[in-house]
Structure formats: C-alpha cells, structure tokens
Amino acid sequence: ITLAFPATALPMAEWSDIHEAAKRGQAEVIKRLLTEGFDVDLPLYNQATALIVAAGQPNAECIEVLIKHG
User: Taking a C-beta distance cutoff of 8 angstroms, is the pair 26, 62 a contact?
Assistant: First the structure.
C-alpha cells in the first residue's frame, strides 16, 4: 500500500487548529493551543508544519512563538 501522505500527517482536507491559527496570524491562539498539548511539529499532507504555514503570513509573532516551542 502506498499512501499519498505519511501516516503521521493530516489529510489534505484536514487542517489542525494550530495550522489554522498560524494561517490567520493568531499568536495568542497558538500559545493557548500549545499549552493544551497541540503538536507544534504536526505536518499537513504536504509536510507543512504550523511554522511553515505561519512563514507565509506577515506575522512575526506567530513565527517566534512556533520557533520557541518547536
């Protein structure tokens, strides 16, 4: 069986809350999610972590938070 994405990654249609917060530039939400135990290194189907998603947005605070916890 060949998977289209690693078994540890989220399928294309599924973003985790931390990826969505990174996309929206919500640093405070990211901090709260991390304290709740969200995996900062969880990859999407394309191996993009929340940090990679945040890097595509103009919000340095999100990037700093994710680097600090990653």
Answer: yes
User: Which pLDDT score, from 0 to 100, does residue 35 have?
Assistant: 92
Report the distance separating Cα 36 and Cα 62, nearest Å. 17
Reference 49, options 21, 61, 4; nearest CA is 21
CA 17 – CA 30 distance, rounded (Å): 8
Note the pTM of the prediction, 2 decimals. Answer: 0.78
Q: 55 in helix, strand or coil?
A: helix
pLDDT at residue 47, as a whole number: 87
The vertex-62 CA angle with 61 and 68, nearest 5°, equals 90
Which residue do the tokens 């973003």 mark?
15
